[in-house]
Structure formats: structure tokens, C-alpha cells
């Protein structure tokens, strides 16, 4: 398959680049804003034509959850219009689209793992624009698969693990919320999940949930990062009210993985994957 990856310089895009060599049967075309702005339909259509693309994997998004609250227009342009453009090109050319969405489409009121058909109710601009992106793809009637994931981290880009490592070097103590529960996802695991679904073929419109396995709070996640990194820091467990942010976040967003597991996707335990990522992060990289 010829696979066009958009948002290829983000953390998921970089993770796909890392694993691409393990899938020599496919030819990957990695792009980001300069070569393929997903809001530019002519550009995406031309790339699809030039590289005889069979499948688009969209890793591009506006992911600044708090900033989105005061920059809804940009968030909507990328997360909604961008999705519409990709779906339009996929529909026109009869090719597939794998699109990534988020646990933040849910309100967090459940206390059971969330299945794909659970009613959505995003609490902030980021979640609302991601949900509208999903809906635009479904409405286009292209062959598409939406994978909702959560708490993504990796050795690339910006994420909670790297923030904790930075704060751990700078401070002696830190407070982290313990009343928001979810599951971290190593972007490498998601990259493999995407390619597994790609190989099964994308037809109709399907939503899948994928995160790593388990359920923890951000506090537990921070503690695990510090323990694995050997960082000695006092970490206070606080409630969300004590850590005010512009965007509201779901209190519970553990995703049920039964459907994606039935599709043949492996779901690693969150701590095993965190160990894998931390081993890479602590290896000094050459300039
Ligand atoms: N990060 C997380 O915790 C989670 C992410 N997700 C979803 O997973 C997907 C991947 O996220 P992640 O890798 O973390 O995101 P990143 O923010 O790391 O990467 C997104 C990439 O998209 C690029 N981009 C932005 N606008 C455009 C555009 N108009 N055209 C093309 N590329 C563009 C960004 O470029 P630039 O940096 O220059 O803006 C960046 O390289 C997203 O759909 C996100 O919503 C879901 C759950 C959790
Ligand atoms: C840095 C920090 C954060 N927190 C809290 C704030 C928040 O409730 C929680 C997570 O913090 P962050 O802002 O790093 O994470 P956030 O940007 O909310 O992460 C989200 O990103 C988007 C893109 C998604 O799709 C989600 O799945 C999720 O991964 O931890 C603390 O309590 N103490 C701290 O020192």
C-alpha cells in the first residue's frame, strides 16, 4: 500500500516513521504542514494523485487543550475543516482514511471503560472540535476508521512524560491531580495498532478505541515516571479544583479495547510500555 501520513512531524507521526521499517510491504509518504497542510484540499488531492496513495493516515491535529479555549477558530480549522478535506479527498479517490481522535470527546461521567457507542459529550473546545472532525468524516461517506486514543506520550514532541521529566529536574516538589483517571498510550503502540488496522482494510465507517491497558490517575503516571527515571521529588496528590486550567478535562476516560482487540490488535500494559519509552529517553542522543 502507498500510505500518506499527515502531521508526520508530531509525536504520533514520528512514532510511525520509527516503526515504518518494520512494514517493508508498504511505501510511506510522510508529510507535515509545509508539504501537506490538511486544510488545503488542492494540495492533499495533488499529493494523493502524485504518489498513487491507497490510504491516508491523519496524525495532524490541533492538540493544545488549554490554548484551544481561547483559539477555537484555529482549533476548528485544523480539527474540523482539516478532517473534512481529508475525507473529501478519500471519498473522491475511493481510498481509505485512518483518523485519530481522543478520549476528550467524553464527559468523564462514567465509571466503567467507555465503549465506542457510548454517547459523547466533550467538555472543552479541543474535544468538541475533535468530535466535529469525526462527524465530518462519517458524513462524507468515505471509507474511514476513527481510532480514539488517550494520554499519548512518546520520546518525541511534547507530552506529559517529558513535562514531568523537565519539572523533575527543575523542582523539589510538584502537585499532580489524582481524580482524573485514564490510561496512558505509548505512541509506538498506537502506530502498530494503526498499521494492523490498515492491513485489515478500511471500509465503511468504524470507530475503535485504543489505549494501553490499565487505569491510573495523572498522579500515578507522574509517580511512575519519576520512579523509573530515578528522580527524587515530592509529589502531592491534589484534586482538579486545586489545579485550575482553562479547559475542563474528563474525570474518567478509560477506553474499552474489546473491539480493537477482536480486530487483532495487541494492547500492551501501560507500565511495560512506559518502561520501553523511558529506556529510550534516558539514552543520550548524539547531536
Ligand atoms: N497528544 C495526546 O495526548 C493525544 C493525542 N490524540 C490525537 O492523536 C493525534 C496525534 O497527536 P500528537 O501526535 O500528539 O499531536 P502533535 O501535536 O504532536 O502533532 C500534530 C502534528 O500536526 C501538525 N499540524 C498542525 N496543523 C496542521 C495542518 N493544518 N496540516 C498538517 N499538519 C498539521 C503539527 O504541526 P505544528 O506542530 O507545526 O503545529 C504537528 O506536527 C491527534 O489527532 C490528536 O488529537 C488523542 C489523544 C491523546
Ligand atoms: C503539568 C501538570 C499537569 N497536571 C494535570 C493537568 C491535567 O489535568 C493533567 C494532564 O496534563 P496535560 O495538560 O499535560 O495533559 P493534556 O494536554 O490534558 O493531555 C491531553 O492531551 C490531548 C491532546 C488528548 O487528546 C488527551 O487524551 C490528553 O492526553 O495533569 C497537574 O496536576 N500537575 C502538573 O504539574
Fold and architecture overview:
Keywords: NADP, Oxidoreductase. Residues 1-280 form the RmlD-like substrate binding domain. Pathway: Carbohydrate biosynthesis; dTDP-L-rhamnose biosynthesis. Catalyzes the reduction of dTDP-6-deoxy-L-lyxo-4-hexulose to yield dTDP-L-rhamnose. This is dTDP-4-dehydrorhamnose reductase. By secondary structure, this protein is α/β, with parallel strands linked by helices. It has a single domain, classed as 3-Layer(aba) Sandwich (Rossmann fold). The chain has 9 helices and 12 strands. It has helices at 11-20, 41-50, 72-93, 125-140, 160-170, 187-200, 218-229, 258-262, 270-281, and strands spanning 2-6, 27-30, 55-58, 96-102, 143-149, 152-153, 173-177, 181-182, 185-186, 205-209, 216-217, 234-238. A 6-stranded parallel beta sheet has the order 2-1-3-4-5-10, with helices on both faces. The longest helix is centred in the N-terminal third of the chain and has 22 residues, at 72-93. The structure holds NADPH dihydro-nicotinamide-adenine-dinucleotide phosphate and dtdp-4-keto-L-rhamnose. Dtdp-4-keto-L-rhamnose binds at residues 63, 65, 102-104, 150-152, 160, 163, 174-177, 180, 218, 243, 245, 249.
Highlighted features:
6-stranded parallel beta sheet; two-stranded parallel ribbon; binds NADPH dihydro-nicotinamide-adenine-dinucleotide phosphate; 287 residues; alpha/beta; binds dtdp-4-keto-L-rhamnose; disordered C terminus; Rossmann fold; oxidoreductase
Amino acid at each position: 500500500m502507498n500510505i500518506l501520513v499527515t502531521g508526520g512531524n508530531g509525536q504520533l507521526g514520528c512514532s510511525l516513521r520509527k516503526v515504518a521499517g518494520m512494514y517493508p510491504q508498504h511505501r510511506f509518504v510522510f508529510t507535515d504542514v509545509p508539504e501537506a497542510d490538511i486544510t488545503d484540499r488542492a494540495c492533499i488531492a495533488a499529493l494523493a494523485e502524485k504518489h498513487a496513495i491507497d490510504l491516508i493516515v491523519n496524525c495532524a491535529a490541533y492538540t493544545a487543550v488549554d490554548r484551544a479555549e481561547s483559539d477555537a477558530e484555529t482549533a476548528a480549522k485544523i480539527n474540523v475543516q482539516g478532517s473534512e478535506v481529508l475525507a473529501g479527498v478519500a471519498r473522491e479517490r475511493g481510498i481509505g482514511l485512518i483518523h485519530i481522535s481522543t478520549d476528550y470527546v467524553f464527559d468523564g461521567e462514567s465509571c466503567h471503560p467507555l465503549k465506542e457507542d457510548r454517547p459523547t459529550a466533550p467538555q472543552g473546545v479541543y474535544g468538541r472540535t475533535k468530535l466535529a472532525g469525526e462527524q465530518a468524516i462519517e458524513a462524507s461517506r468515505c471509507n474511514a476508521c476513527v481510532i480514539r486514543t488517550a494520554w499519548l506520550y512518546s520520546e518525541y514532541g511534547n507530552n506529559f512524560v517529558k513535562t514531568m521529566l523537565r519539572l523533575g529536574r527543575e523542582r523539589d516538589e510538584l502537585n499532580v491531580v489524582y481524580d482524573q483517571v485514564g490510561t496512558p498510550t505509548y505512541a509506538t503502540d498506537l502506530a502498530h495498532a494503526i498499521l494492523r488496522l490498515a492491513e485489515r482494510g478500511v471500509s465503511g465507517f468504524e470507530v475503535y478505541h485504543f489505549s494501553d491497558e490499565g487505569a491510573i490517575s495523572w498522579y500515578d503516571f507522574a509517580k511512575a515516571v519519576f520512579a523509573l527515571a530515578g528522580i527524587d521529588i515530592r509529589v502531592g496528590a491534589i484534586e482538579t479544583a486545586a489545579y485550575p486550567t482553562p479547559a475542563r478535562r474528563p474525570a474518567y476516560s478509560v477506553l474499552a479495547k474489546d473491539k480493537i482487540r477482536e480486530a487483532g490488535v495487541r494492547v500492551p500494559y501501560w507500565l511495560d510500555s512506559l518502561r520501553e519509552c523511558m529506556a529510550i529517553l534516558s539514552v543520550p542522543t548524539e547531536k
